[in-house]
Each structure stands twice: as C-alpha cells, then as structure tokens.
Write a structure and sequence with these properties.
- There is one protein chain.
- The chain is α/β, with parallel strands linked by helices.
- The chain starts with a helix and ends with a strand.
- The structure holds uridine 5'-triphosphate.
C-alpha cells in the first residue's frame, strides 16, 4: 500500500470511527511507521464496525451488567435416546442405525470437524491446546489422538474421511507448523484443511471502548465455537465439502481425549432416526448434581436447545424425577453431528447469519492511551463476546439427542488443576481403557477404592470401542498384554 492510499484510508476510517465513538483506536497513528499504519488500518477495517454500537449497548454497557436470559414460555427436559437401547424408557434399534452410519462413512459422506480456535486460558498452556500432551502413558498430543481416529476409521470403512480444523488468527500458524513438524500425523494432507475463525473486538467493560492490544492493533478475541458455522462458509470449507460429496460433519472440540470422533451409531441416528431432520444432533451425558456447570438439553417452546447452567433457574435445576434422577439431567459434552446442508441453509438464508452473543468478563491486556504503556490487568477489565455452536440447535427442524455414558466419552481438559484438568482426564482415560480390557477378558489390578492400579492407554488405531478391542484380543492375542501387575504402565499400540 502506498503512503497516499494509506492516508486516504486513514481519513475515511477516522470519520467512521468518530461516528461510533471509537476514534481513540488511532491515538498512536502519528507515531507509527508506514508499515504499522497500514497494518493498523487493515486490522480496524476487518472489524465489523457497523454492528459495534448496537452490540455495545446490548451486551457491554448494560444496566444489569449482563443481558437477562429470556426464559422461554415453556422449558421441559429434552427427550433422548438412552445409551442402553433395550431400556424400557425408550427402546431403539441400535443395529439398524449402526448399519446406516457405517454405510454413510463407507460412502465418503462423513468428515471430522474440530474446533480448535480457543485461547485455552484456563489451562494456561503455551501453545494451541491441540498440541497439549494429553494421554496418560505416552503424552500424545490431542491433535494426534484425533488424527489416529481419522486413520483408524478410514481404514476400517475403506473410505476417505476429510478432517477440517478451525483455528483462530492467534494460533493458526503455530497449529499448521505443528502438523508439519509431526509429518501430518501420517495423514494424507490433501484431506486435511485448516481454516481460521473470525474475531470480535474486546471492549473496555465500563465504557464499551474497543481496547488497543498494541499501538497498531485493536484487542480482539476469537468469536466463539459458534463462529465456526459462518467460518465454514466464509473459508470455502463448505464448498470443499460439496465438491467431495461430504454430507455430515462429526463436530468435536479439541479438548476431550475420550471422544469417539467417528461414531457410526450416532451418525446413523442423526441421519436416519424418524424424529431427526438430519440437520443437527447432539450427545448428552447424565448430569447428577444440580450445581454441575454444564449446559442442559431442554425443549424450549418445543425446540431442542441447550440452556446454560447459569441460565437454568435453580428451582428447575434441582427438580428430581420419581426415580431420583434430575429432571433436567441431559448435560451437554459438546458433541454434535451437523449436516452440510444445514450450515449452508443458515448462511445462505441470511447473508449476515449470526448466532446470539454471550458475554464474558475477562482480563485483557491493553495499551494505556495516556502513557502508551501496555498494562496486564489483575482483575477482569474487558467484555468478550462469543457465539456458541449449540445456539444453532433451535434452527434445526427436528433435533435428536443420544445419551453416551460419561465414563465412555467425556474427560475434558479445561483447567490446570482440580476438576477437568489433565490429571482427572488422564485418570478417566486409563479407567476407560481398564473397562474395555476387562470386557475383553483381561484382569486389571485395582486399588481398594476400585480405581485401576496401573496406567493404561489404548490407541484408536487398535480399537475404537470395547467390542473392537475384544475382536483384537481374539484375532491378535500377542498384541494385547494379559498379565497386568499393580503399578504397570501398559500401552496398546499397533
Ligand atoms: P472453551 O469454551 O473451553 O474455551 O472451548 P477455550 O478458549 O478453549 O478455553 P478457555 O475458556 O480460554 O479456558 C471449547 C472448544 O471450543 C473451541 C476450543 O478450541 C475448544 O475446542 N473454541 C472456543 C474455538 O474453536 N473458538 C473459540 O472462539 C472458542
């Protein structure tokens, strides 16, 4: 860009910023080099300034501090397919849905979609969360685990399973470099696509002023996992899926090493259940304590929705059924199937498709406009706005929920210590491996409390389920150790 174009862009932007009271973003413009000036102008121009004043009014400087949750007229628990398909509560034909799902995978109609653009602030790991060493024995990175799922399922069903990975501007380059350094985890890189999600400005909490992260850069944050639905469209990923004949995405977050990333039964139910419009489906894990901080599946005015734990009135959260279970017991582990047509409909039906925003108060470093110094605040000073993917559920005509046992499929890594930390996740990974081995007939040493007294790790390349591990034991007995002693570390790899 020449100095002349920079200065005419500067004039135009200065006016637009003044119109919305954000002219301070140019405070240091005169001190910057020509290159920095051009970068600043581009970064500001990339923000959606037109929508800013309305967003600030609605979400940032609200009288109540946070926009009130508007309860629906009726809120009922969402029905779900129980994990046990023979349960009297709602029996269902697992075998036929398994077959339907396997056919879709074999026909190349399924892709894996992973959202990995988050900032992972709670974990405090220096790098994209997908690079985090997550497994209990080998410390495999989360990206490698998912890559092994893609390879294992592709081999089993003799099909190409493309993998789409959403990053954010803050971690994109590091993520792609990691894939390169790891030789793309032995995947065919022609079938792996990384694309970036959008960002939102970060706002000063009291005034709604957009913060400056550097003198030449406004502070921004990724626009939430819900941003994936428009990023899939804008990045060309949807178009790529159309060319390949991909019809449904298995949606996974990056931070759950127990996820069954390609699950034929779930795929089959999503695509073929009579009460599913095959647009967006979900898994649920049972919530047993009213205060557990997970969103719950509800029927809100008849539509399957997730209501955040902070929005579910205490009275409803603690209601119990006759059998003692919570009435609103369907917790969301953020596992979905989403159809390509559904995402296309959301984007093409309305060019400015956007889910509602959720407000979070966070600590965001910023440049002090008077001194020019960068400040690291020690208490929340900013509002970040994010979209959540589950807010797309009510847009589906009919959406189903499938129960999955928590110990089989949910061991998130969110926090450095305590609940949902690497330590709890690794214990759960080992516990699931122990359970699978026991089903296969292998004796597992256990502590008096019943936990495995050993560290166990099973690669998805060997088995994606307990049934497959049992098959392996019969077909390839030498691969599976049968003598496990207390304190052993056992890794089952191909
Ligand atoms: P979380 O809600 O746990 O957020 O993301 P986070 O950013 O990873 O972690 P904290 O809250 O800063 O500690 C759940 C999933 O959604 C993805 C994350 O990468 C993770 O897989 N995500 C989140 C995105 O892809 N983009 C976002 O903007 C936010």
């Amino acid at each position: 860009m020449t100095a002349t174009t920079t200065s005419s862009q500067h004039r135009a932007l200065a006016q637009s910023l003044a119109d919305i009271n954000q002219q301070h973003l140019l405070t240091f413009y005169d001190d910057l080099s020509e290159r920095q000036r051009a970068a600043l102008l581009d970064r500001i121009a990339a923000l959606d300034l037109d929508e800013t004043p309305a967003l600030i009014k609605k979400y940032v400087v609200t009288d109540s501090g946070s926009p009130a949750f508007v309860p629906s007229r009726t809120l009922d628990p969402a029905p779900y397919y129980p994990a046990d398909c023979e349960s009297a509560q709602r029996p269902w034909d697992r075998a036929s849905f398994l077959l339907a799902g396997e056919e879709l995978i074999a026909q190349g109609k399924i892709a894996l979609f992973t959202v990995a653009g988050g900032q992972g602030t709670r974990l405090g790991y220096d790098g994209p969360k997908g690079c985090y060493p997550a497994t209990p024995a080998l410390g495999k990175p989360l990206f490698r685990l998912l890559a092994e799922w893609v390879i294992a399922a592709s081999e089993r069903y003799n099909a190409i399973i493309p993998w789409y990975i959403m990053t954010s501007p803050a971690n994109h380059e590091q993520t792609v470099r990691f894939f390169e350094d790891q030789n793309w985890f032995n995947l065919d890189r022609a079938h792996v696509m990384h694309f970036q999600q959008g960002v939102m400005p970060s706002f000063q909490m009291e005034t709604g002023a957009i913060l400056l992260d550097q003198k030449d850069a406004p502070a921004t944050n990724p626009d939430g996992h819900g941003g994936s639905l428009r990023a899939l469209h804008r990045s060309g990923a949807l178009e790529d899926m159309r060319r390949r004949g991909v019809e449904h995405l298995s949606y996974t977050q990056i931070d759950n090493p127990l996820i069954k990333a390609i699950d034929p039964v779930f795929i089959g139910l999503h695509a073929a259940a009579p009460d599913s419009s095959a647009e967006m489906s979900s898994k649920m894990v049972e919530k047993t304590l009213p205060e557990e901080r997970v969103g719950v599946f509800c029927l809100a005015d008849g539509k399957t929705s997730v209501v955040e734990y902070s929005d579910l009135p205490d009275k409803l959260a603690s209601q119990r059924r006759d059998d003692g279970a919570l009435r609103f017991n369907a917790g969301s582990p953020a596992i979905h199937m989403i159809s390509v047509d559904f995402i296309r409909r959301l984007n093409e039906g309305d060019a400015d498709f956007a889910l509602p925003f959720h407000r979070a108060q966070k600590k965001v470093p910023f440049i002090n406009l008077e001194t020019g110094k960068r400040i690291e605040p020690d208490s929340p000073n900013a509002v970040k706005l994010e979209m959540f993917v589950f807010d797309a559920l009510p847009f589906a005509h009919r959406s189903i929920v499938l129960e999955t046992p928590r110990e089989e499929e949910f061991a998130p890594i969110k926090n450095k210590n305590g609940a949902d930390s690497p330590a709890t996740s690794q214990a759960l990974q080992s516990a699931r491996a122990a359970h699978w081995l026991e089903i296969a007939g292998v004796a597992i040493p256990r502590t008096p409390a019943g936990d495995p007294d050993c560290t166990l790790e099973v690669s998805p390349l060997v088995a994606m389920s307990a049934t497959q591990l049992k098959e392996q034991l019969t077909q390839n007995p030498s691969k599976i150790p049968t003598n496990i002693a207390p304190g052993d570390t056992v890794v089952i790899e191909p």
